Amino acid sequence: MVDGNLPVFQLCFSDIVVMITMKRFFPTLFVICFVATIDALSLIPDTLKDDFFAIYRKAAVTSRDIQVAPVTPENVTFYLFTKDDPKRFVKFQKDNLQKVNLPMNGKVAFLVHGWTGDREADWYTEIKDNLLNKNYGVVEIDWKEPANEYYYISSINTYDVAKIIADTMLELSQKKGVPLKNMLPIGHSLGGHIVGFIGQKVYEKSGQKLPRIVALDPAGPLFDVRPADKRLNSSSAEVVHVIHTDGGTFGYKDTIGTLDFFVNGGSSQPGCKRVDLADLTTITEPLSCDHRRAPFLFAEALAYPREYIAQKCGSWDDFEADKCQNGEKVAMGDLNSRNRGKFYLKTGKDRPFFKIEEEEKKKAGKEVEKNADKGTDKDSSRNGNRQDEKEKNKGPLSGIKEAARSVIG
Ligand SMILES: *[C@@H]1O[C@H](CO)[C@@H](O)[C@H](O)[C@H]1NC(C)=O
Ligand SMILES: *[C@@H]1O[C@H](CO)[C@@H](O)[C@H](O)[C@H]1NC(C)=O
Question: Model-level pTM?
Fold first, then answer.
């Protein structure tokens, strides 16, 4: 019943409407909207759905004329972590770099969250830890105020946020001697476009292109109707390294970088359509799970490069039909890769995601390498936490669960 490709997910952008009336994003309302739309879906004629998309696209165009609060350097905060002292951070802002102490010639990654996010973004810790292990300094960026507006306003704010981050990077290179070529912006969703604008801004001001930016399922809505010079594009950096997991819904569907990975085809991920009614937090899973998978796949690809080998191919169909086996291969977590084009790979539905079910493996006719066992310890502790969360969610919410069950189940 809960199927990934239903227009219900698009319809749930009526969440934008909820945000307009309520001025904030409420996950609970999102759930109600989702449940309500599933129920109503069969009653909505196709022509009306088309109208909805027309209105939605119109919003993209008119939104350019909307007045938004200015984004100032106070709205963007940086938290620097280094390997010497991974538990502590140095907090700074664009005009206050005195405390920043970066190793000369050391590499520095900048993590940029998406819409409604903040420094608590669930993927920051894992990618940070994996990069610290590779001797990167890691800066977690928080732009929560401009990110917690209506979606279309946050999407406009991305440009100004990027400008502030780019200026800060230029200052760091001038005052702290960290070469621009050692800086690596990594962004998810709206953050995926922010890293694009960072690259463009750095180039404009220094004449130097960043060697690489990483965009994790860069946002689709409102960006898919923009011309290439108003979004992340293939000239935003020397290598524009993109991972697609939710193309066509929350993510950007088409090729947008120089090195585009389409995981499991790039628009929907295995295991993402599950709703576990004992765990209320999973009710929104079908909506955001595909989109949120990208940073975790990248985190694993950094830690287990050999488990994430992708195959250059013209299309997912050709890849699935084994038509590209002799072509170029590249590891999705390889931060030195210079390959260009569209690359495909398959993953499984549970962590670690590189583990593919026996059945699927047979179907894919593909051999997965041996060291699949690494990482299971971490995974089981994660499951443990999940179990605890489940316990917590039992009780007062059972009425809602019943209601949800009658619609979804
Ligand atoms: C930036 O921060 C100021 C002060 O906290 C706030 O008033 C303003 O709304 C913020 N800007 C945005 C775009 O959120
Ligand atoms: C990417 O965007 C920049 C900045 O707007 C623009 O100058 C450049 O031409 C664009 N590149 C492509 C390939 O569209």
Answer: 0.77
